[in-house]
Amino acid sequence: MPSDQARQPTTNAVIDPEAESLTRPGAYKPGSAAWLGSMVALGIVAVGVVTGPRLLTPSATQVAAVAPPVVTVSAPLQQDVNKRVEFLGQLAAVNQVELRAQVGGTLTQIGFKDGDIVHKGDLLFEIDPTPYQIKLSEAAAQLESARARLDLANREAVRASTLAKTGAGSIQTADQRVAEQRAAQAAVAEAEARVRDARFDLDHTRITVPFTGRIGSHLVSAGNLVAGSRAATSPTTLLATIVSIDPIYLNFDMSEADYMAFLRERQQQTGPLADKVEVSLADEKSFSREGTLDFVDNALDRSSGTIHARATLPNRDLLLTPGGFARVRLEVAPPAPALLVPDSSVLPDQAEHIVLTVGPNDVVTPKHVLLGDLRDGLRVIRAGLDPSDRVIIDGIPTVRPGSHVSPEAGSISLAASQSRR
């Protein structure tokens, strides 16, 4: 028979002596209470971790509603504006002359400082006049000789005519004396022409200012031999250049579309042509200068599709310099009602432009617009807006199309500091 130990069931459990002692009644072992307290504490912490987030999450009633962004709105400014176009032009002198000698010789004097404003008739250059004074003296002497021969021929012609009438002289002799008289008269005329020619050369040894203007630098120094020619049939020496300064031209080119709009508006006018232009220099922000459109070319340039035009401007302050650039503004239509909004309210939308407006339900609504130019700091809207629209003029970065906003009333006014823009 098997033993009692063999009949006892076997187990794989491992019994912790310390745990077993805790299960027995009255059993106590040092440190067991501390261990039990630690387990209770860990249980409390675990419960806190599980329930903590649920206690910190606010309920739906505690979430405050987000207020819509505040924007400033205003109706577009209504004002009569004239249609105008702007171009980039280049300044040019009305008169520009290259100073060249008409006679040759040694340059003896320069009568100006480079860059001076010179006046008509002032002496600029002087060429040695001695050879031309000699030539004039010779011509004058020949003239005196011719006049003496003419005087003798006159007396002989009178004498021969008298003798022929009395029969003491022949008619042939009288005719010869008349022919000699005419030859002497021709010789006098030739001598007078030589005198004028010599005086012309002598006078042109002094080169004077042809018109009031600004002269450039001298290109030949005193003591140099210069070449001259009256008809420029031979090479001549360039001495300096001079340009007029008041008034001055402003040349610019108009596109075919702008030119056609300009022509159609001119045809509708019954009074004087609209020839007023406004000009702004490169360092000016306002169009403070005025001029007159006085020339439009007679044909379009086939290569560029533009037509050349020119305005004349006063230059009393001498700030306009030939060769410089300036903006020119040309009016092509009389004043007509238009809407204006701040330029900052116009946003690009690919190839188009939009203006953000606020509808009756305070929803942001974009509108595509057709732009004009800037007027007194405001952008002209040619089409796309109604006078009753509420345009957002402040707070644009905080909104987007379709969103709700809280509008506040504002106003659009002209920029006083830009009244000439």
Produce a short descriptive summary.
The protein has 421 residues and is of the alpha+beta class. It has helices at residues 4-7, 17-23, 32-56, 130-166, 171-203, 256-268, and strands at residues 70-74, 77-93, 96-100, 105-110, 117-118, 123-127, 206-208, 213-215, 225-226, 238-243, 248-255, 276-281, 289-296, 306-313, 325-342, 346-349, 352-358, 364-375, 378-383, 391-394, 406-409.
Word description of this protein:
The protein has about 425 residues and is an alpha+beta fold. A six-stranded antiparallel β-barrel has the order 2-11-14-13-12-15. It has a four-stranded antiparallel β-sheet with strand order 3-10-8-5, with no helix packed on it. A four-stranded antiparallel β-sheet has the order 7-6-4-9, with no helix packed on it. Helix 4 (about 130-165) runs antiparallel to helix 5 (about 170-205). Mean pLDDT is about 80; it is low at about 1-65 and about 415-420. The protein has helices at about 5, 15-25, 30-55, 130-165, 170-205, 255-270, and strands at about 70-75, 75-95, 95-100, 105-110, 115-120, 125, 205-210, 215, 225, 240-245, 250-255, 275-280, 290-295, 305-315, 325-340, 345-350, 350-360, 365-375, 380-385, 390-395, 405-410. The protein folds into three domains: about 70-80 and about 335-420, Beta Barrel (conserved putative lor/sdh protein from methanococcus maripaludis s2 fold); about 85-90 and about 250-330, Efflux pump adaptor protein, beta barrel domain (Elongation Factor Tu (Ef-tu), domain 3); about 95-245, RNA polymerase II/Efflux pump adaptor protein, barrel-sandwich hybrid domain (OB fold (Dihydrolipoamide Acetyltransferase, E2P), Beta Barrel), CATH 2.40.50. The longest helix is centred in the middle third of the chain and has 37 residues, at about 130-165. It has six helices and 21 strands.
